[in-house]
Design goal:
Blueprint lengths: L1 E7 L4 E8 L2 E5 L5 H8 L3 E6 L5 H4 L9 E2 L7 E5 L2 E7 L8 E5 L4 E5 L2 E2 L2 E2 L9 H11 L7 E4 L5 E2 H7 L4
Parallel strand pairs: 3-4, 4-5, 9-12
Antiparallel strand pairs: 1-2, 2-3, 6-7, 7-8, 8-9, 10-11, 12-13
């Protein structure tokens, strides 16, 4: 699986383009549909995954014709969309509908605004909860330390780096 990152919108949201066997999944198309489509080029988009419904993660969503997947139509646990198999886990705290997407084979997780390099998502916005964030952080600890974390903003990190440097973990 290949992963491309396109930074979009005023809040510089990470939109991820995943490709496997010629099929594309888009994660969090925050804004700038044309910029995202230029990166996708002529590849077939088979689905769009939304980690949570904040405006900076869904701005370009209305322009996609592919199926949309989110907390309401993915099973907590293993899911398959075309050639992509992944685990969806509910990780509320920043927002009540936030999900993270874990690809076991690649040992990577897309986390939206759940966790960032050296920080976590805000819990003081509508739908946020400090108590739920603590529970979600506990879920994260069961994964491999060398798992790569792809956040909704900013650079990638690893679970090991966050355990060592993020006082909230």
């Amino acid at each position: 699986m290949s992963i491309e990152k396109v930074i979009v919108g005023k809040l510089e949201t990470n939109c991820y383009i995943l490709e496997k066997d010629g099929k594309v999944l888009v994660i969090d198309p925050g804004d700038e549909f044309e910029k995202i489509m230029n990166q996708i080029n002529n590849r077939e988009v088979i689905g769009v995954i939304i980690t949570h419904y904040h405006f900076d993660h869904i701005g370009a969503l209305p322009y996609f014709k592919a199926a949309v997947y989110d907390y309401s139509n993915l099973n907590e646990g293993i899911n398959t969309i075309g050639p992509f198999t992944f685990e969806m886990l509910k990780t509320p705290g920043h927002k009540e509908d936030l999900i993270s997407i874990y690809f076991k084979e690649e040992n990577i997780m897309f986390v939206g605004d759940f966790i960032f390099k050296g920080s976590i998502g805000r819990t003081d916005l509508e739908g946020g909860s400090k108590e739920e964030m603590v529970k979600s952080l506990e879920k994260l600890k069961k994964y491999s330390d060398n798992m790569i974390i792809y956040p909704g903003h900013g650079p990638e990190t690893t679970l090991k780096a966050e355990k060592e440097n993020n006082i909230l973990l």
